[in-house]
Design a protein that fits this description.
The chain is mainly α. The chain has one domain. The protein is built from eleven helices and two strands; from the N terminus they run H-H-E-E-H-H-H-H-H-H-H-H-H. A two-stranded antiparallel sheet has the order 1-2. Strand 1 and strand 2 form a beta hairpin. Helix 2 runs parallel beside helix 5 and helix 9 packs antiparallel against helix 11. One of its GO terms (molecular function) is ABC-type transporter activity. Pfam families: ABC2_membrane. Its main location: membrane.
């Protein structure tokens, strides 16, 4: 008689599935920056305006005022017009790529409901803003490289040849970009709709260019205009860039300490106002 032994096989208990961890805020910000850059370069009108505007304006002013070798008299030094206008054009490019670009694009995204939908995703708000800053830095580097290349190749502009000048350029450039970006984010809540954003933002930038010594020699502007311009960051961006690209006899007295103080102050103001008043929804959406 044979005994039959039955063996019962017990299946292992199923493992608990853990939800996938999201990447960190910095990693998400880098990916968001890549996305923002792709979207930016698809908008051909914005690309042409932001990249070409400083180059075109410098070419126009250098050609009109620099005919027959005419120069700018500043600090007892004769400076070619292209050399004199270059610092203002770089400063203008920073404002266009940071303040104007963000103030308009974020207003449009809000008006179209993009910010509201984005707010409902797991993406941290900080990653969204890091992506915007990454987009600004990427576009500005391309814009500035094009401007400097054209200035050297077509207008015989002399670039700085000391490490100290380039170090000054770097911190003025980055601090000006940061201030412009946070102010653009904060100001994006001012236009009532995306359609009105350009009409609200663009005239402000144009007026600041005319009163900040971008298109005209600073000493030739009325005193009251200089006082108004000195309140805003564009004037000090121009001042900082002049310390880099103009002869020491002209820009040696550039108030770099004041430049740093004013740009930092606007950075702080932009952060405070942005945190307090930034809106993810349209005004009529609760």
């Amino acid at each position: 008689m044979t005994a039959t032994t039955s063996t019962t096989t017990t299946s292992p208990a199923p493992r608990r599935s853990h939800p996938a961890r999201l990447p960190g805020t910095l990693a998400l910000g880098v990916e968001r920056a890549r996305y923002e850059l792709r979207v930016f370069f698809r908008e051909r009108d914005a690309v042409v305006f932001i990249f070409a505007y400083p180059v075109i304006m410098m070419a126009i002013f250098a050609a009109v005022f620099g005919q027959d070798g005419a120069t700018v008299q500043a600090g007892g030094v004769d400076i070619p017009f292209a050399q004199y206008f270059l610092p203002g054009m770089i400063a203008t490019g920073v404002v266009l790529s940071s303040f104007q670009s963000l103030a308009i694009s974020i207003s449009v995204e809000r008006d179209e409901g993009g910010l509201k939908r984005l707010r409902g995703t797991p993406l941290p708000a900080a990653a969204y803003f890091l992506g915007k800053i990454g987009q600004v830095l990427g576009t500005q580097l391309v814009q500035t490289t094009i401007l400097l290349a054209v200035a050297v190749a077509l207008f015989d502009v002399t670039l700085p040849d000391t490490a100290g000048d380039w170090l000054t350029f770097a911190w003025v450039y980055l601090l000006g970009t940061a201030a412009g970006a946070v102010c653009g984010v904060a100001f994006s809540s001012v236009p009532r709709s995306g359609r009105s954003a350009s009409a609200v933002v663009t005239p402000i930038v144009l007026v600041l260019q005319f009163i900040s010594g971008v298109f005209f020699q600073w000493d030739s502007l009325p005193g009251w205009m200089q006082q108004v311009a000195s309140v805003f960051p564009l004037r000090w961006l121009v001042e900082g860039m002049q310390a880099v690209f103009l002869p020491e006899a002209v820009a040696g007295d550039a108030e770099l300490v004041t430049t740093a103080a004013v740009l930092t102050a606007w950075l702080v103001v932009g952060l405070v106002v942005g945190v307090r008043f930034f809106r993810w929804r349209r005004r009529d959406d609760g």
